[in-house]
Specification:
single chain, 366 residues, mainly alpha, CHAD domain, 2 domains, 15 helices, 0% strand, disordered N terminus
Length: 366
C-alpha cells in the first residue's frame, strides 16, 4: 500500500531549516543523529511537502511521540497527499491507509509549529485535524464507536487554539497588510491585534507542550498499527465508500433551501457537510479506473468551487466579529465593515451558480 504525491521534488536552500549549531544539537537530541541527517537530506530534496514512504513517516512519528516537542527543526508546510488504493482494496485496507496518511499530514505540520507561528503551518495543521476527524468518523465501525468518539473529541481539542490564532492571522493579512501604507487608526488597530495574536500564540504554545497532545499522537500511532494488524476483510472499499458518499451528497443537496435563505448558520452547516464529502471523495477516487478519473476531477472541481465561496462567506463573518471586538475607531470600523460587505455581496452572487454546478455534477462513484 503506497501513499503517492503529485508534487514534484525540488531543491531548496535549507539553511533556515537547520538553524544555528545550538539549535541543530537540540534537534539531534530529539531525533537522533542518524535521523537528523536523514531529515536534512529529506528537506533538501523534497521541500518538506510529501512525507512519502513509510521510513520518513516512522521517523517523524518516533521523534514526536517522545513528548519532547521542543527543538524540532521548522518544517515547510505539507499539504494533503493523494491516497493510492488498489481497485479491489478492502474496507480495512482503506481505513489503515486513510489514517496513516492523515497522521503523517498532521505530524509533519504540528511538529513544525513554533513561535512565531507560520500561518500556513497553522492552516495545514487544522486541515490535517479536520481530515483525521472525517476519516475516524467514516471508519468508526472498523475503529470501534467508543474509541472513534473519544478520538474525535481529542482531535477537536487542539483545533480550537489553532482556529483562534488562524482567524486573527487571516484578518491582519487580508485587511491590514504590512505591505501597504496604513493610516494612523489602522496602525493602532494592527498593534492591538498583534497583542491578541501574541495571546493566542501563548495559548497555542501551551497546548503544544501539554501531555494531552503527546497522548493524542500516541493514540494515533496505536490506531494506525491496530488497523494495519487487522488485515483484509471481505467488504470492498469501493462499494462501501460509494454508499457513504451518496449519503453525504444527498445531505449536502438538502441544504438547497439554506442557500436560498442565505442563513449564515445553515450555510456554515453546509460547508462542514461539503468538507466531509470532499475528504471522503478524495480518498475514494483512487479506487476508480482511468475512465472515471475525469469524472472524479470534474466532480471535485465543482465541490471545491462551492467550498471556496462558502469559506469566503464564513471568513467575512468572522472578520466582522473581530472588527466589532477590536476597538477600532468608528470611522475605521465602518470602512472595514463596508469592505467586508462588498466582498460578501460578491460571493453571494456566485453562490447560486456554484451550488447549481455542484448539484448537476455527475457523481463519479455512481
Amino acid at each position: 500500500m503506497t501513499i503517492t504525491s503529485q508534487a514534484p521534488a525540488r531543491r531548496l536552500d535549507t539553511h533556515h531549516l537547520r538553524g544555528p549549531p545550538s539549535h541543530q544539537a537540540a534537534v539531534q537530541a530529539t531525533l537522533g543523529r542518524a535521523d537528523f541527517a536523514d531529515s536534512a537530506r529529506y528537506h533538501a530534496t523534497r521541500g518538506g511537502e510529501d512525507v512519502g514512504g513509510e521510513p520518513e513517516r516512522t521517523r517523524q512519528a518516533n521523534a514526536f511521540d517522545t513528548g519532547d516537542h521542543r527543538g524540532i527543526a521548522t518544517l515547510i508546510p505539507r499539504k494533503a497527499q493523494r491516497i493510492a488504493l488498489p481497485a479491489r482494496a478492502s474496507v480495512s485496507q482503506a481505513a489503515h491507509v486513510a489514517i496513516a496518511e492523515g497522521r503523517a499530514h498532521f505530524l509533519h505540520n504540528v511538529q513544525g509549529l513554533k513561535r512565531p507561528f507560520s500561518p500556513e503551518l497553522v492552516h495545514q495543521t487544522r486541515v490535517a485535524l479536520r481530515r483525521l476527524r472525517v476519516f475516524v468518523r467514516v471508519f468508526r465501525s472498523r475503529i470501534g464507536k467508543q474509541r472513534a468518539g473519544a478520538l474525535r473529541v481529542e482531535l477537536r481539542w487542539l483545533f480550537v487554539p489553532l482556529g483562534e490564532l488562524r482567524d486573527l492571522q487571516l484578518f491582519v493579512h487580508d485587511l491590514l497588510p504590512a505591505s501597504r501604507a496604513l493610516t494612523g487608526p489602522e496602525r493602532a488597530l494592527r498593534v492591538r491585534l498583534a497583542a491578541r495574536i501574541e495571546s493566542a500564540s501563548v495559548a497555542l504554545a501551551e497546548a503544544l507542550q501539554a501531555p494531552r497532545l503527546s497522548a493524542l499522537c500516541a493514540e494515533l500511532a496505536a490506531l494506525e498499527a491496530d488497523l494495519e494488524r487487522s488485515g483484509r476483510d471481505r467488504k470492498r472499499a469501493r462499494r462501501w465508500l460509494a454508499r457513504r458518499l451518496e449519503r453525504q451528497r444527498r445531505r449536502a443537496l438538502n441544504h438547497f433551501e439554506a442557500v436560498l435563505r442565505r442563513d449564515p448558520l445553515e450555510l456554515h452547516s453546509l460547508r462542514k457537510t461539503l468538507k466531509k464529502l470532499r475528504y471522503t471523495a478524495d480518498l475514494a477516487r483512487g479506487l476508480y479506473d482511468d475512465d472515471s478519473a475525469q469524472r472524479a476531477r470534474n466532480y471535485l472541481r465543482s465541490l471545491r468551487a462551492l467550498q471556496d465561496v462558502l469559506g469566503a462567506l464564513v471568513d467575512a463573518q468572522v472578520a466582522g466579529s473581530i472588527v466589532a471586538d477590536a476597538g477600532a475607531t468608528p470611522a475605521l470600523s465602518r470602512r472595514l465593515i463596508a469592505r467586508l460587505e462588498r466582498g460578501r455581496a460578491s460571493r453571494l452572487r456566485e453562490l447560486d451558480a456554484c451550488f447549481q454546478r455542484f448539484a448537476d455534477a455527475d457523481p463519479f462513484w455512481a
